[in-house]
Inverse folding.
């Protein structure tokens, strides 16, 4: 994008202190980074990644002097359009995330980019957690959680950001700062911002002198409310500094930037029980909620209401209780959870709850369970409701989730009326669920925005909803999702003129030029919620169901380097829009920009599919794109390689050994420089040499046991047959020899498939888009393994997790192949005597391991074998991605940028289950990663 005028001036100023690689003005990044989870879209002119508070402060000074609007973005999981702009988007870096916990673990201090789930992971050993618990907690950043006053199923109004706030560091519109925990900072702020402080104090006095307004504020914040500003700060506090800090909660980036925040922590009880209570109708369920709220408030942690339409939307999904299909047409569920500091108290809680509800006749008997498996299944019902609507919606439509709260005594009538509104406006797929203890309901429906008649339908529906919630029932139009652009036109309707005037004054006090997130919360346009809708064109079956929530982003290995899965999907949708418009020139230019960020640096690890609410695998889309880009000549070459694979592997082993021999003479630094030069000259087609590059290896038959009753077929992957270990040790056994020795020690006779040399699972081909060639190799291997195992009579062990996963996907005969972790855990531990070693170790679960659900078994094996095990919390996919780490080492480096600092300094041993990953992990950690079998060997006594 070509900049001009003030935006060019802005760019020229910030380029003096922010590296060019963190400033984006091109079409790809402004569109991809400019998207949030809402159904609105604005495209920023400039996107800036900020790494620290000094950069934010300087940027705000510049935007203030140039009178340019600026919007702050954390994770972009907000649903109401509060994190988008057509001006300057300031994104917080994913690495701006230090955490400090005080000695008693009573408070936790966090920088803006800390994920809510990471904060809880740090607090878990202390038996504590943060109060707010939004559904997006694994992807939402703490600054966004606080700025939206996001809550969730358990925190209610007692433990949200507002109620648990201890201190805050704020950067204001002019770049000035305030630390509410520092007397010196407060003194200086009052000195230099005397007028602001005085005006805040005046507002407090004004409300105190207006009993009607005071009482309205108190009443409206008895239930969840994020519609408008948090006027309760002006009622609950007298000190203007306290008021300022609490006004920042829920202000959605319109009053300032949250540089750091300190929360008081709350208990995280381990003893839990849940009951899926099925009542005959909504009235009975809501009557039960009133009982739980008024008579069991100390015994209940959560009560989630789910209407019959919601239950029907998930009843046919895998793992759902069969009784869901038998429920009556009006049945309504309450999912109730109780938590306690010990099991005895938990039993007491359960007894009280059941006794207090005994007068309401349920459709099914009420039953609490402490069984983790059983109650996890119940909670999967609740968590599956939103994605269930998203997964079945018509392509090209948008999923909308609205968020309201009613006084609890009106919940039943209001819910029934909502259902009537769905019928009136033809939203037949709509479902209702929510945090019933707080009167907080979410309703989900699908909407098309391409047709003006559809927009009129949506407008009329939302007007009726607003009148029903705000006027009839005096509820909250936004309970926990924030006002944003979505509800800004209705803030005055809900609050009345006196309170709305107060809110406009607050905005003017903090942001006199109106430059911080303009149009959000305060918006004079009554049609603002009907503008700038996202286009959701039909693009590809792999991604059309994407709701752009952003839950995928934290696990993506390229999230700090180029694009995330959500951003790849947004980019592909935009290319569809260009194509549909017939703009070939713009399409080709955008496609060229996308190649490196979207295609080359996608690890295709598919971890995104594990956290995606609708199961979208963006890696599969990338593989499809790569397949389309392959030329006939490349296919011919791949076919030749597949047909001569054994010979080529032999050559590869020889070359690796030769390179290792050269490295014995030439120092690492010189080798790296030479390799970098050759790689650059080849246009990045030749791989980059690394210090962790293994030498060559030739698979050897080292068997000693024959004629045993117990047999196992051992398939050594082509990479393990060709490569030795990264950073090899002189007397170290090669992997195949070591595995054969362990298997024989466990009493197995080892069988190899015939004609082993050319056998391959097909992954080296399929991952690059060569599907036919990959399938060819897979079929050859399947036939060989069927023969060797006598059609599955004997178990089959593969020594690399990614190959095992590929075989599971490609094999047609149903032949079972065991992963190293699975085989060790299920078949070897009972046959071997394990003696725990005292050496500290670090382990890494590769993506295939995670996708096969073997992470817990891996950790269990590791802890059986070693007394000190580290599992780096900030590492997901290593980013090596087969051989991609040789051609794009920056992907591996970015994905593992926190690895080294996450490993205790006394750790010398490291283990995984995939050769390419072990190379990348070794390179970035400085340790020598080995197969899990090497750990097992050390622990066998």
């Amino acid at each position: 994008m070509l900049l001009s005028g003030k935006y060019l001036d802005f760019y020229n100023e910030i380029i003096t202190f922010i590296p060019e690689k963190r400033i984006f003005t091109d079409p790809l990044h402004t569109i991809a980074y400019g998207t949030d989870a809402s159904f609105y879209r604005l495209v920023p002119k400039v996107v800036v990644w900020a790494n620290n508070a000094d950069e934010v402060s300087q940027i705000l000074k510049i935007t203030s002097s140039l009178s340019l609007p600026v919007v702050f973005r954390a994770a972009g999981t907000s649903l109401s359009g509060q994190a988008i702009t057509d001006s300057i988007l300031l994104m917080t870096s994913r690495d701006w995330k230090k955490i400090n916990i005080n000695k008693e673990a009573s408070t936790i201090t966090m920088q803006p980019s800390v994920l809510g789930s990471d904060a809880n992971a740090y607090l878990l050993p202390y038996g504590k957690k943060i109060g707010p618990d939004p559904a997006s907690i694994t992807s939402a950043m703490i600054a966004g959680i606080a700025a939206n006053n996001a809550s969730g199923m358990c925190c209610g109004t007692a433990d949200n950001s507002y109620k648990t706030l201890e201190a805050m560091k704020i950067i204001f519109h002019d770049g000035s700062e305030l630390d509410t925990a520092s007397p010196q900072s407060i003194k200086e702020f009052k000195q230099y911002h005397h007028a602001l402080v005085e005006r805040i104090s005046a507002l407090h006095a004004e409300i105190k002198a207006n009993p009607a307004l005071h009482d309205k504020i108190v009443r409206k914040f008895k239930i969840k409310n994020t519609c408008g500003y948090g006027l309760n700060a002006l009622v609950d506090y007298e000190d203007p500094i306290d008021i300022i800090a609490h006004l920042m909660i829920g202000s959605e980036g319109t009053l300032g930037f949250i540089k750091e925040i300190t929360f008081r922590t709350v208990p995280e009880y381990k003893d839990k029980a849940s009951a899926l209570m099925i009542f005959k109708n909504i009235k009975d369920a809501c009557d039960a909620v009133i009982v739980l709220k008024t008579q069991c408030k100390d015994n209940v942690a959560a009560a989630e209401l789910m209407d019959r339409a919601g239950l029907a939307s998930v009843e046919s999904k895998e793992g759902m209780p069969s009784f869901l299909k038998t429920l009556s047409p009006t049945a309504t569920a309450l999912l109730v959870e109780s938590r306690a500091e010990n099991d005895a108290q938990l039993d007491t809680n359960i007894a009280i709850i059941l006794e207090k509800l005994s007068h309401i006749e349920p459709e099914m008997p009420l039953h609490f369970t402490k069984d983790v498996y059983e109650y996890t299944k119940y909670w999967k019902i609740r968590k599956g409701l939103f994605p269930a609507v998203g997964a079945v919606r018509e392509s090209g439509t948008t999923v909308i989730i609205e968020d309201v709260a009613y006084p609890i005594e009106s919940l039943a009538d209001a819910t029934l009326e909502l259902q009537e509104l769905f019928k009136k406006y033809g939203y037949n797929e709509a479902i209702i669920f929510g945090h019933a203890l707080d009167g907080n309901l979410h309703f989900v429906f699908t909407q098309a925005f391409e047709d003006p008649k559809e927009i009129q339908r949506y407008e009329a529906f939302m007007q009726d909803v607003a009148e029903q919630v705000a006027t009839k029932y005096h509820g909250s139009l936004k309970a926990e999702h924030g006002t944003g652009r979505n509800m800004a036109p209705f803030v005055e309707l809900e609050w009345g003129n006196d309170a709305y005037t107060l809110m406009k004054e607050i905005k003017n006090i903090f942001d006199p030029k109106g430059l911080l997130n303009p149009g959000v919360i305060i918006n004079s346009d009554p049609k603002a919620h009907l503008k700038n809708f996202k286009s959701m064109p039909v693009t590809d079956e792999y991604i059309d169901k994407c709701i752009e929530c952003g839950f995928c982003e934290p696990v993506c290995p390229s999230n700090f380097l180029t694009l995330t899965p959500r951003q790849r999907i947004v980019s592909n949708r935009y290319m569809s829009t260009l194509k549909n418009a017939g703009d070939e020139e713009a399409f080709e230019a955008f496609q060229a920009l996308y190649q490196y960020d979207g295609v080359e640096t996608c690890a295709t690890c598919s971890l995104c599919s594990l956290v995606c609410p609708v199961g979208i695998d963006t890696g599969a889309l990338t593989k499809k794109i790569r397949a389309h880009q392959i030329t006939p000549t490349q296919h011919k070459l791949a076919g030749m390689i597949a047909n001569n694979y054994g010979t080529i592997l032999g050559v590869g082993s020889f070359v690796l050994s030769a390179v290792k021999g050269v490295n014995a003479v030439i120092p690492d630094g010189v080798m790296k420089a030479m390799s970098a030069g050759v790689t650059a000259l080849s246009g990045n087609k030749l791989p980059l040499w690394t210090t962790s590059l293994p030498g060559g290896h030739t698979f050897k038959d080292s068997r000693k046991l024959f004629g045993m009753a117990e047999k196992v077929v051992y398939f050594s992957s082509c990479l393990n047959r060709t490569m030795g270990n990264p950073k090899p040790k002189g007397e170290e056994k090669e992997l195949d020899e070591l595995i054969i020795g362990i298997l024989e020690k466990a009493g197995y006779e080892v069988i190899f498939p015939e004609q082993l040399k050319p056998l391959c699972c097909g992954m080296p081909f399929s991952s690059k888009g060569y599907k036919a060639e990959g399938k060819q190799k897979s079929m050859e291997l399947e036939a060989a393994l069927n023969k060797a195992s006598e059609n599955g009579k004997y178990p089959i062990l593969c020594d690399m997790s990614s190959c095992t996963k590929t075989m599971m996907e490609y094999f047609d005969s149903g032949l079972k192949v065991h992963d190293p972790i699975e085989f060790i855990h299920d078949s070897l531990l009972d046959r071997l005597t394990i003696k725990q070693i005292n050496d500290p170790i670090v382990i890494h679960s590769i993506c295939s391991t995670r996708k096969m659900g073997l992470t817990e078994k891996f950790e269990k094996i590791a802890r059986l074998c070693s007394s000190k095990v580290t599992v780096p919390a900030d590492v997901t996919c290593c980013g090596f991605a087969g051989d991609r780490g040789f051609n794009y080492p920056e992907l591996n480096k970015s994905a593992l940028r926190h690895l080294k600092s996450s490993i205790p300094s006394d750790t010398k041993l490291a283990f995984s289950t995939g050769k390419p990953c072990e190379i990348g992990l070794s390179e970035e950690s400085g340790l020598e990663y080995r197969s899990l079998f090497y750990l097992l060997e050390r622990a066998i006594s």
Observations:
- Residues 452-472 form the longest helix (21 residues).
- The chain is about 45% helix and 10% strand.
